[in-house]
Amino acid sequence: MFTGIIEHMARVAQIEPTTDSSGYYITFDEAEPILSDCHDGDSICVNGCCLTVTEFTKDSFRVNVANESLSRTNLGDLRVGDRANTERAMSGHTRFGGHMVQGHVDATATITSKVPDGDSIRYTFTFSPTSSSAASTSATSRAQTLMPYLVEKGYITIDGASLTLTEVDDETASFGIMLIAYSQTKLVLTKKQVGDKVNIEVDCVGKYVLGSQARIEGMVERILEKKLKERGL
Hints:
By secondary structure, this protein is α+β, with helices and mostly antiparallel strands. It has helices at residues 67-72, 135-146, 181-184, 204-230, and strands spanning 8-17, 23-29, 43-46, 49-56, 61-66, 83-88, 107-117, 120-127, 155-158, 161-169, 174-179, 197-202.
């Protein structure tokens, strides 16, 4: 579990394919600020994706990014020299400054606008298709699945950062946030441009609420149907 408060932007030092084509090994360096209490097997959130540390030194760590993660995130777009948002798993004595972030990326979204607003920046996003084939259908499906979890002034995780939704437009299946000046110095989003992809995790509390509601409604319908049949109605 994470808070969405980014601790450090680490640098991609090396990318190696696994021998069995099951993904990539990615090594990040210039990461000393988050490695003082690191152990093999620890979880580190990288651009919003919970990954397991397989090796580490004083200022670098290595993770194995499996094909499942590559298919759902923008980690496959990383190149040597790129920066990535990182956060260690939440400890029991950490101030909870963001919101509950699982590190389970739901989808990627594409930046559709980036507009200055004073010393802040307003971003607008739409959900990205999973592939070039049937792209429109894929993007529409993702929007239909995930848009119900987005509410204005609610939480959203973008590349691992806990941010506040400033707009949600169901008609265009788009959503937006505002990045204040301080956050611009702490997040990789600042360097991204229109057309670039970001990792999205919707609020897990919303998932549980809507998921439970759907199950309860289904259970009530089945009970009602059973009782009506018993009474010959």
